[in-house]
Amino acid sequence: MTTTPAAPPAIAPDDPRAADVHALLTRHLELMHAQSDPEDVHALDVDALTAPHITFVSARDGSDGTLLGVGALAEIAPGHGEIKSMHTAEAARRRGVAGSMLAHLVGLAVDRGHARLSLETGSDEHFAAARALYARAGFVACPPFADYEPSDASTFMTLDLAAGR
User: Fold this and answer.
1) Which residues touch 159 (CB under 8 Å, ≥6 apart)?
2) What mean pLDDT do residues 115-128 have?
3) What integer is the mean pLDDT of 65-79?
4) Is residue 139 part of a domain?
5) Among 26, 48, 86, 142, which residue's Cβ finds the most Cβ atoms within 10 Å?
6) Domain CATH for 51
7) Based on the structure, what is the number of domains in the chain?
8) CA–CA separation, 160 vs 162, rounded Å?
9) pTM here?
């Protein structure tokens, strides 16, 4: 018996205040606070994700619209974007949602002419899968950027988008 591979999720702009999205973002913040000291939690809340310099998107199942994950692209300086609040619903993990979301956000950054795309994630074992995902996509370790301060709890990574032009 063969199985049909799952179709890639439909990724599009969304409203972080929508009920299902808000619930997933709340879960994301709860996890970040459970896994990190308060001063090391850099995930954005719903209100922050509605700021004009942020493009918020969701990944949904193409067949029934079930929310699979979320992510955002923030413009932090001219030509420099930051990935924020990437999170995959627990039931959708290990299905390629995070990879699809990351590719979408990188594509948005390229389309907007960003020369650099950066991110902050945790440095402990809870964040190992995220760091591996970003490394597979070409992100490399970098010093803190924007308003971040050095922290043993944070890993800073960046992707040079200008190199591919």
Assistant:
1) 106, 116, 117, 118, 137, 138, 139, 140
2) 93
3) 95
4) yes
5) 86
6) 3.40.630.30
7) 1
8) 6
9) 0.90
DSSP codes, the chain: ---PPPPPPEEEE--TTSHHHHHHHHHHHHHHHHHS-GGG-----TTGGGSTTEEEEEEE-TTT--EEEEEEEEEEETTEEEEEEEEE-GGGTTTTHHHHHHHHHHHHHHHTT-SEEEEEEE-SGGGHHHHHHHHHTT-EE----TT----TTEEEEEEESGGG-
Q: Per the domain annotation, does 5 fall within a domain?
A: no
The 10 Å Cβ neighbour count of residue 57 is 19
**In this predicted structure, what is the pLDDT of residue 42?**
75
Query: What gap in Å lies between CA 139 and CA 118, rounded to an integer?
Result: 8
Mean per-residue pLDDT, 2-25: 82
Residues 6+ apart with CB under 8 A from 93: none
Return the pLDDT at 53.
Answer: 94
2 within domain boundaries = no
Structural domain for 135, as ranges: 10-164
